[in-house]
Write a structure and sequence with these properties.
- It is a single chain.
- By secondary structure, the chain is an alpha+beta fold.
- The protein is rod-shaped.
């Protein structure tokens, strides 16, 4: 049985066929534009996240370096026998009664480096404790925590340390907040 279609049915069938025919050029262009916009946005998020990740890594490294230096200095200063020389950029400690074992902490502002120098007998060992120190200063206080420069027995008893470090990566400079500590020289009379 053959069905004959009237002109209205033929027209409806043609429209239905046209709708099912696939994407048109305009639809494709809109889809491509949306896709490119999404990719550009995701690239921006990725780059921003990567930069922030590097910044956080810098802060973590500066904090770790500062903590390690402070832990080492605290242990060594507390065990020192006597402070023999004081300067805001240099501390010298004696570790034995014969004076053959000395410890020096030295801050060099031109290189922004804090070093630890052990002198045992005739040999000297130098270790870098912190790099990138924008500023570092030692302070000396007596038993009442009054500032002093007296290194004689009964003079300075507490060492104050304050520093600020910076680090640069990807052209960005990160700076940590000022760190401070006070260390008591236990064996100082």
């Amino acid at each position: 049985m053959i069905l004959k279609m009237d002109w209205k049915t033929k027209r409806a069938a043609a429209r239905l066929k046209q709708r099912r025919g696939g994407w048109m050029l305009a639809e494709s262009m809109v889809a491509i534009a949306i896709g490119i916009t999404f990719l550009v946005a995701m690239t921006g998020v990725f780059i921003s996240s990567s930069i922030n990740f590097v910044d956080i890594g810098n802060y973590i490294n500066m904090d770790r370096q500062g903590r390690n230096a402070l832990d080492r200095m605290t242990s060594n200063i507390r065990n020192a026998k006597v402070l023999t020389s004081f300067d805001p950029a240099k501390l010298v400690f004696n570790y034995d009664s014969t004076g053959t074992t000395n410890l020096t902490y030295r801050y060099d502002s031109s290189t922004a480096v804090l070093t630890e120098e052990w002198k045992v007998g005739g040999s000297t060992t130098v270790k870098t404790l912190m790099t990138g120190c924008a500023s570092l200063a030692f302070s000396l206080y007596n038993r009442d925590l009054a500032p002093t420069t007296d290194t004689s027995p009964g003079g300075g008893k507490v060492i104050g340390i304050a520093w600020n470090c910076t680090s640069t990566s990807l052209g960005r400079t990160n700076s940590e907040y000022m760190q401070q500590a006070q260390i008591v020289i236990r064996n100082q009379p």
